[in-house]
Amino acid sequence: MIHFFANVDLVIYSKTHLRPLVDARGDSVIEMWVGSLRRTYEAHLGKLGTTKNTLIDHSRLCKLINARPKAKRRIWNAAIRIVLILEYMHLLAVVIID
C-alpha cells in the first residue's frame, strides 16, 4: 500500500532576511507567512503538492531548492533551522533539519 501526505509544509528560520528566497519559490509553493520574530526571520511555506508517492513529494522539494539561483541557495544554506511538517490523515510528523 502506498501512502501519501495530505499536506507538506516547510518552515525556515534564519538570521538573514528570507524574502528573496520566498520570492523565488515558484508556483507550486504557497507563501503562508514571512516575517521576523525576536531577531529571527521566518518563512512558512505550504502545499508543495501532493501525490500518491511521498518520495515524489520529497524529490519535488529538493528540486525546487536546488533549482534556485546560487544567491538564493546561499540563503537556504544559511538557515539556522528548517522544519518539514508532514500531515497524513489526522497524524502529523515534524522533521527538524539543522
**Quaternary status:** single chain
Helix tally? 3
Shape: globular
Which consecutive residue ranges, at least 5 long each, have pLDDT under 50? none
Biggest sheet details: 5 strands, antiparallel
Structural class: alpha+beta
The order of strands across the largest sheet is 2-3-1-4-5
Whole-Å distance between the termini? 31 Å
Mean pLDDT: 75
How much helix is in the residues?
25-40%
Q: What series of H and E elements makes up the topology?
A: EHEEHHEE
What is the rounded Rg?
13 Å
How much strand? 35-45%
What does this 3D model show about the protein?
This protein is of the alpha+beta class and 98 residues long. Helix content is 27%, strand content 39%. The chain is built from three helices and five strands; from the N terminus they run βαββααββ. It has helices at 19-23, 54-66, 70-77; strands at 7-14, 30-37, 40-46, 81-88, 91-97. The protein has a five-stranded antiparallel sheet with strand order 2-3-1-4-5, with no helix packed on it. Strand 2 and strand 3 (40-46) form a beta hairpin. It is globular. The model has no long low-confidence stretch (mean pLDDT 75).
Structure described in brief:
With 98 residues, this protein is α+β, with helices and mostly antiparallel strands. It is built from three helices and five strands; from the N terminus they run βαββααββ.
Features:
single chain; 98 residues; alpha+beta; five-stranded antiparallel beta sheet; 3 helices
Describe the secondary-structure layout.
Elements: E1 7-14, H1 19-23, E2 30-37, E3 40-46, H2 54-66, H3 70-77, E4 81-88, E5 91-97
Antiparallel strand pairs: 1-3, 1-4, 2-3, 4-5
